[in-house]
Write a structure and sequence with these properties.
The chain has 4 helices and 10 strands. The protein is an alpha+beta fold. The chain has a 5-stranded mixed sheet. The chain has a 5-stranded antiparallel sheet with strand order 4-3-7-10-9, with no helix packed on it.
């Protein structure tokens, strides 16, 4: 059990071994950008981890073998596996205009077991960017592992932006080499 947990920490957590430039971990990405009255507060991120890696996570962290992660189980998974992802900037590159957005933390991490033995990570990345700083700029988000150990696929139909009473987020996608970037623009709502 400890051996598998250690291996999953290496695999899913971001301590990447350079044994080859092809993915061993496949993650479907979904996201929703969240707004307050004056701020892009951040993004809710959902990662669906492939069945093979998911089965190992389930074996190592579903301690009571009931087919779901209880709070103590996903807290353990967070501590032993996901906390390493912070060192990779959550496999995200975020730019606002020409400036990099520093991601300093994640919040509200929950892991769940899906019916097909995939494991879903749900977490929130705070941005706290003033909406006025986004006008006439694009916020670009790229999910990427430069070592190519993990492959990320955007589920485009599951990428969305919230809105407030005055502003709305508009999502588009740009292709860059092998990856698609999420592009968020802020527009004034029509009255």
């Amino acid at each position: 059990m400890k051996y598998k947990s250690m291996m999953m920490s290496l695999l899913v957590g971001g301590m990447i071994m350079t044994t080859g430039a092809h993915p061993h971990l496949f993650i479907d990405v979904m996201a929703k950008f969240m707004f307050s009255d004056s701020t892009l507060t951040g993004v809710n991120v959902f990662w669906d981890i492939d069945e093979m890696s998911g089965a190992s996570l389930i074996e190592d962290f579903d301690f009571n073998h009931n087919g779901s992660f209880e709070k103590n189980e996903y807290d353990s998974l967070y501590r032993d596996v996901f906390s390493w992802v912070a060192k990779t900037n959550y496999y995200m590159e975020v730019t606002c205009g020409n400036s990099m957005v520093k991601l300093t933390k994640s919040e509200r991490f929950v892991a769940s077991i899906l019916p097909d033995l995939k494991v879903r990570y749900a977490f929130f990345i705070p941005f706290n960017i003033k909406i006025t700083d986004l006008i006439n700029k694009k916020l670009r988000v790229l999910f990427e592992d430069p070592s190519m150990f993990a492959a990320f696929e955007l589920k485009k139909e599951m990428i969305s932006a919230g809105m407030n009473s005055e502003w709305k987020g508009v999502i588009s996608f740009e292709k860059e080499e092998y990856y698609y970037l999420i592009v968020l623009k802020v527009e004034k709502k029509q009255q």
